[in-house]
Amino acid sequence: MPDATTFTRPDLTTFTGLDDLGLVVTGQRLEPDRAVLACRVVEPDDWCRRCGCQGVPRDTITRELAHQPLGWRPTTLLVTVRRYRCAECAHVWRQDTTAAAAPRAKISRAGLRWGLVGIVVQHLSMSRVAEGLAVSWNTANDAVLAEGQRLLIDDPARLDGVRVVGVDEHVWRHTMKGDKYVTVIIDLTPVRDGTGPSRLLAMLDGRSKKAFKDWLTDRDQAWRDGIEVVAMDGFAGFKTATTEELPDAVTIMDPFHVVRLAGDALDVCRRRVQQDLHGHRGRKGDPLYTARRTLHTGADLLTDRQQARLEQLFANEQHVPVEVTWGIYQRLIAAYRDPDRAAGRAEARSIINALTQDVPTPLVELRRLGRTLAKRAEDVLAYFDRPRTSNGPTEAVNGRLEHLRGLALGFHNLTHYTARALLEAGGFRPQLHPGL
Fold first, then answer.
1. How many contiguous H segments (helices) and E segments (strands) does the chain have?
2. For a Cys-Cys bond, which of 125, 182, 323, 372 suits 314, CB 3.0-4.6 Å?
3. Does residue 108 contact residue 100 with C-beta atoms inside 8 Å?
4. What's the burial of 225, exposed, middle or buried (CB within 10 Å: 0-12/13-18/19+)?
5. Got the DSSP string for 120-170?
């Protein structure tokens, strides 16, 4: 049992956090759908702002503010604000309520904090926040996003300490109207150092060299000089922008996209062979179609049944192109999984050399893959000198943004989506919840 001396007299003002807002509770009313607290401003504020003379009370007005819900019951503050009139210059003014809420705001500062914590820490939808505050969706969205922009996103120290950057494209709108791609820039420094998860730094409209280059140009020179590594996919625009703006940074084509290139070549080869042999796309019962997922499984992870399926598939001489492409795909996976980084680098170099020398003409997919890897050979091999530096965490952030879009049932406004994405994946949770 706690010591009785640790308790104080019940105080509704303290319980509801209004003493931090410069208010005191004078009454309460419970309605079926909300709680209403009558409040007044503590400080008198009776000195004229124009001439400095003391004013006299004139009348009062009531200001209504949405407050943080108590027990998920929406709470409304009815704040009585006194108006004064200067006896000397006849100037009329109101008591200062900026401690409780910004001018013309409809939500108290405590309510804004609650909404921001709900969005960032608890991953609530904006509709749920609006319901908790008993305000419209537009009111909640505008106020909470503005508070997040002011308090978190616009923090000048937000980009400090960034040394490893990941850049990738992201599909934010699954319609044909307008540009559906954005460029996401991720801080991979915590992942490389093993100190924490990646975080979203910026989301840029469009997918182009110019978008990434302009964002880098806007950063100060000291920040750009501190960037050591940039991880990216095979898009040449990101590579060119990095070379021009960060000449001292090492560019890495991360394993996720390299393996995906090989996997795409395997899929294209399988479909081509399927079409050449049967004259139609894969159907249920076709060996190549049945094995489509098994072909993408790492050789060291195959079950006995999957192994038997592949042996049966490759026993057919007509499937040799698929077998050869599958072999290159598996060699790439094995190179990245090799615990000996030097051996993995040597194997990757061997694969690139093999794909650029005497590849039979019928293996068009491998020839195309070889040309791509040869152009970016230095970027592919650079990963083995800097382990734990890949765009895998960038893809993880993309997954969180996919979840955000599902939670919000989609976005139509890119500005709102960018702000919500930064609040969702910008690494702000520890700032709002020290226990995380």
1. 18, 10
2. 323
3. yes
4. exposed
5. HTS---HHHHHHHHTS-HHHHHHHHHHHHIIIIIT-TTTTTT--EEEEEEE
pLDDT band at 420 (very low <50, low <70, confident <90, very high): very high
Bridge partners, residue 29, by sequence: 36
- How is 320-346 classified by DSSP, letter by letter? HHHHHHHHHHHHHHHHHH-S-HHHHHH
For 164-254+390-432, CATH number?
3.30.420.10
- What's the pLDDT tens digit per position in 156-184? 899 999 999 999 988 887 776 767 889 99
Sign, CA dihedral 396-397-402-403, equals positive
Any residues with CB less than 8 A from the CB of 338 and at least 6 apart, and which? 344, 347
pLDDT of 41-50, one tens digit each? Answer: 999 898 998 9
Distance, CA of 305 to chain centre? 40
What burial class does residue 233 get, using C-beta atoms within 10 Å of its C-beta: 0-12 exposed, 13-18 middle, 19+ buried? buried
Measure Cα distances from 46 to 26, 101, 435 in Å.
Answer: 21, 20, 43
Q: How far is CA 245 from the centre of its chain?
A: 24
Beta bridge pairs of residue 252: 231
Spell out the domain ranges in the chain: 12-153, 164-254+390-432, 255-385
Residue 176, both tokens: 């044909």
Partners of residue 202 on adjacent β-strands? 185
Closest residue by Cα to residue 73 from 36, 105, 101, 127:
36
